[in-house]
Specification:
By secondary structure, the chain is mainly alpha-helical. The protein contains four helices and no strands.
């Protein structure tokens, strides 16, 4: 036999996938044994996320207005300096 045949025989995924009995992974066996003794609590598929703490809308408004005012002052100062 050639080296190609050995490699093909060793990694024949079609043959492995067609097996009648498939052994569960080590993690699946571990969880099955753990859950047999102590089953997990029921949980929804996707739990609702915890809401983020809301800060007052005035904080966002103050930040935006303060930024706009600072930009206006900066542009006015730059224009005043360039006119001299």
């Amino acid at each position: 036999m050639t080296e190609q045949d050995d490699w093909q025989r060793e990694f024949d995924l079609g043959w492995a996938d067609s097996a009648e009995h498939k052994e569960p992974s080590a993690r699946a066996r571990m969880l099955a044994a753990r859950w047999k003794e102590n089953p997990p609590d029921p949980a929804p598929f996707r739990a609702a996320p915890t809401p983020a703490p809301r800060r007052g809308s005035w904080v966002s408004t103050a930040v935006v207005l303060g930024s706009v005012a600072a930009l206006i002052v900066l542009l006015g100062y730059a224009q005043m300096r360039s006119s001299y």
